[in-house]
Amino acid sequence: MKARTVLIGMLLFLACACQKQACDEPVQFVVQAGEVTKAGDGSAVTQLFVGVLDQEGHALEDFRRVVTRTSSAEDFVFELTLVKGMRYQVVLFAQAAEAYLASTGFTSTSMLRAVPVPATLALNDEGTDAFYACLEVDASEMTQNVALARAWAQVNVASTLAVDAGTTVRLTVSSVPETFDAVTGNVSGTREMTMSGTCLNGVAFEQGGNLVAFGYVPVGKDGALVDVSVKVVREGTEVTREILNMPLEPNYRTNIMGDI
């Protein structure tokens, strides 16, 4: 009698183990950056940071990873083995190599909830662009096609006057956040940001005039009202223009035009 009881118990254990394996499903993610944006093309974005949360919002660190691509012609592609019937939150943040998060220092999914925003960024640099998404998934769909949204706003500065090559350009932007949450799209902290570079000499702007500079300004999902100072140093002469209460929205362009 004891031998039979043990045998039945072993059979039940094997049945449960097989059932659990049958519930594990590989789900492929195909992620695009820049396809549905209204500013820029995402060409410099080569790293995708991936984090996964369970239904209660707890991080599942075994899923944490950094996925790379070599060019904007490629999608980010990766696979997660999920338990069928369970729902997950998959958190994605894409950037140029090492721009905001360090790949070797990505030791916790919680880092995606506080992506650091520096106090200075370069103008005319696609490497300052960033994208994100947070989606609910389960294993019912074997392939997930994801289009990332731009996390930042793009600001273009254009002049109705000719601007010499080598002209120094600097933007000072108020009320820029200190951290960005890729789960909610919200931001925290506030400070002034400085963006500097050299004039894009001879680049025609779509609305007329000459494109002086462009930059990506970090904002939260709800956008922001900021004050912007545009400073151009041309042949030793400094020209400054102030724009107050300028609205910025993520994934949109805001154009500053005038006799700069």
Description:
There is one protein chain. This protein has 260 residues and is mainly beta. Helix content is 8%, strand content 48%. Strands 3-2-5-8-9-1-4 form a 7-stranded mixed beta sheet. Strands 7-14-11-16-17 form a 5-stranded mixed beta sheet, with no helix packed on it. The chain has a 3-stranded antiparallel beta sheet with strand order 6-12-13, with no helix packed on it.
Describe the structure concisely for a colleague.
The protein has one helix and 18 strands. By secondary structure, the chain is mostly beta strands.
What structural class is derived from the secondary structure elements? mainly beta
The arrangement of helices and strands along the chain is HEEEEEEEEEEEEEEEEEE
Distance between the termini: 94 Å
Mean pLDDT: 88
Radius of gyration: 24 Å
Would you report the number of β strands? 18
Percent helix? under 10%
- DSSP helical segment count: 1
Please give a handful of descriptors for the protein shown:
8% helix, disordered N terminus, 260 residues, five-stranded mixed beta sheet, seven-stranded mixed beta sheet, 1 helix, mainly beta
SSE order and pairing:
Elements (H helix, E strand, L loop, with lengths): L1 H22 E10 L13 E7 L11 E4 L7 E8 L4 E8 L19 E2 L3 E3 L7 E8 L5 E8 L1 E8 L8 E9 L2 E2 L6 E2 L2 E8 L11 E9 L5 E11 L2 E12 L4 E6 L2
Parallel strand pairs: 1-9, 7-14, 10-18
Antiparallel strand pairs: 1-4, 2-3, 2-5, 5-8, 6-12, 8-9, 10-15, 11-14, 11-16, 12-13, 16-17
